[in-house]
Write a structure and sequence with these properties.
Shape: globular
Helix content: over 70%
Distance between the termini: 10 Å
Number of domains: 1
Structural class: mainly alpha
């Protein structure tokens, strides 16, 4: 399974870099930027306990991330169906 093989390769580089590379491969650089922006916010919450943006901006970025993840999963499945 492609997702499992991708997860196995995450050990070799950071999760953030691996995710951006995967997103860029199946979607594009702009979509990888959406992930990067949200990952920065996530890091602030995790490491500092602070939200580095306004709540409405957080909600908007979360919605963008949710949509992007849906597009990513569809793109991976479509490519797998074409090239099994």
């Amino acid at each position: 399974m492609i997702v499992a093989s991708r997860l196995g390769s995450l050990k070799r580089k950071s999760i953030s870099a691996s995710a951006r590379q995967l997103i860029q491969k199946y979607l594009n650089k702009d979509e990888a930027g959406i992930y990067g922006n949200f990952y920065t916010i996530r890091s602030g919450l995790l490491h500092d306990g602070t939200l580095r943006c306004k709540e409405n901006e957080f909600r908007e970025k979360l919605s963008q991330l949710n949509d992007m993840v849906s597009r990513l999963l569809i793109a991976i499945m479509e490519r797998k169906a074409i090239n099994p």
